[in-house]
Structure formats: C-alpha cells, structure tokens
Sequence to fold (327 residues):
Amino acid sequence: MTNDSPVFAMDSGPFRDVIPILLDYLDLKSRVQLAQTCRFWKYRIYIDLKRWPTTLELPYLGSMDNYVGIHHSLEEVVHAKLWSMVRPPEDPRALENVLKQIASSDDSAQRFSLVTKINFKNFIHTDESLRLTALLFPAIEEIRFEGNLLSINGIHHIAMQCQKLKHVEFYQCENVDLREAFRIFDSQEHQENLERIFVYRGFWRNLAGQIPLMEDLPFMAPCEKCGLYYNQLKNEQKMLCLYHPGVRIDTNEHSRSLFSCCGSNTPRYPSTLGCQYTFHTKCSSDSFRKLHDGLPEYMFQKYSDVKFSLRCYERRRLDKCYKRWNL
Ligand SMILES: [Zn+2]
Ligand SMILES: [Zn+2]
Fold:
C-alpha cells in the first residue's frame, strides 16, 4: 500500500461503477462542493466532462428600458425571457469580467469544453469577451454578435476556434464590415456545420453598402422567404425555413393586416419568421428582404400567438448605452 491507497481503493472494483450513479444525484453546486473535499473527487468530477451541463446561462443583470416600465415589472419581463427589453449591464466590460474569472481557473477552463449552448442574456460582447468565449466554449453551436463594442477581431476568434457553429447572428454591429465578417467563415468546417446566418440591419438605417455578397461566402445564400442566409449544401436535407404560407389580409381594425394562415396580425411582433416549415428558396433579385427587428429567443420558432403575453415591438436601444459609455 502506498500513500495513495485510499484513492486507489475508491477508484477500483465495484465502487468505480457506482461513482457515475452517485454523481448523477448531485446538482452542479453539490458537485463543485464535493470536488473541493479531496483530490480523488476533484479528479473524478472534473475529468468526466460529459457530466457537466452542455448549456451555460448567465443571470439577467441590468435595468429595464423606460417604455417597458409603464406597464410591466422587471420580474414579468424576465419571466417571459424578453431579454431584449432589458438594457445591458452598466459596465460595458461586465461579460468580459465574468469570463475572465471563469478562465482564471484551470479546472473551469477545461470543464466547459463540451458546452454547446451559452446564453449570456442581456450581457454584451466585447472583443475580449469573444476571445474568452472562443477559448472556453469551443463547441458552441450558436453565437450572437451584437453592438458596437466588438470588432472584426472578436469575430475572428470565434470563427477560428468555434468550428461547430450552426447559427450565427449579427445585430447592430456597426463597427463591423459584414462582407469581411462573412469571409472569415469561409472554411471547410463551417461549410459542413453552418445552417443559417442572420443579419439584423435595423429598420431605420441604410446599411446597404455592407450587404454580404455570394462571393464572400459562396456556400451560403439569402432566402427570399425568410430573409436568412442559409447553407445551400444542407438545404435538401431538412426543412429549416419558416414562412407564412397564407396571404396578408387587410383588416379595418387600426388599419392592420393579418396572415390568413395563422392569424398573425402584427408582422413586426412577435418576431417569428413564420408558422410553417419549408425549404429555403434562393433570393433571385437584388432587393433582399429586410427582416423585422426581433427578439432572438422567439424569432426562430414557429409562430404561435399564445406564447406571447407581453407586447414588444423593437429590439433594445443600444445607442443609449453607447452615449453613457462615450462611444
Ligand atoms: Zn402564418
Ligand atoms: Zn428561408
């Protein structure tokens, strides 16, 4: 027997088979606490990456937009997951600081390597937070670029290291040349995995000069039905295009119109792309369809009216934050 004998005994024979079952009974917090008790548990808990959750969420941290405050409380909005009605945290580096902390421990840096989904809620990315995201979460399948705190450098980190990405979204990234951003994703790995790229151009701004062209990312094409860029090589495998098969009917009520298929009567709300799935259709004309400003958590789901208890018409106004941050 050596000094390590207890470790040896615990990690051998029938006990080894029991360990995974034991760990399954513990929540994340208990597992972290157990890992702190001795080397054996620390090793067993951190070595088996499959035991860690594959999604990571941050809590909401911030204040409500004024126009929401009149009718709804922060709790209601948070409960409905309408993160876009919540402004980013006061500190523009909040996300960066959280990720820095995670990356500072070797165990942590390791344990998120199989995470496929991160939800940073109303936090906002900087180049540094994107660099850390790429480092900590190389297996993520979705990324959302939003706002002016990031540049092409941050996008570069993600595109190079997160090669399993399926969904990429750009919202109000006015410091980024979208054509250049698209070109970064032109690789074999992204060609195999990417399903859609969404570009939110804003309703009031003319960003026409930045519209990515086919030559920038040849395997992706804009869809005339849903307005997303889709992977042409994958289009025949699966129906991923959401659209309204019906027609718009004018109603006398408040001079609004509704879709005959599902009754959706507020085209800019609640931000869904449609109520039926079909295959994407390549956009033939130059006048590429403008998408409404949406809430990302709902935008890519089938339209169903009952889900939305709150009314919200626009994405959050980041310009107010930039003013505060002197940008
Ligand atoms: Zn419909
Ligand atoms: Zn489509």
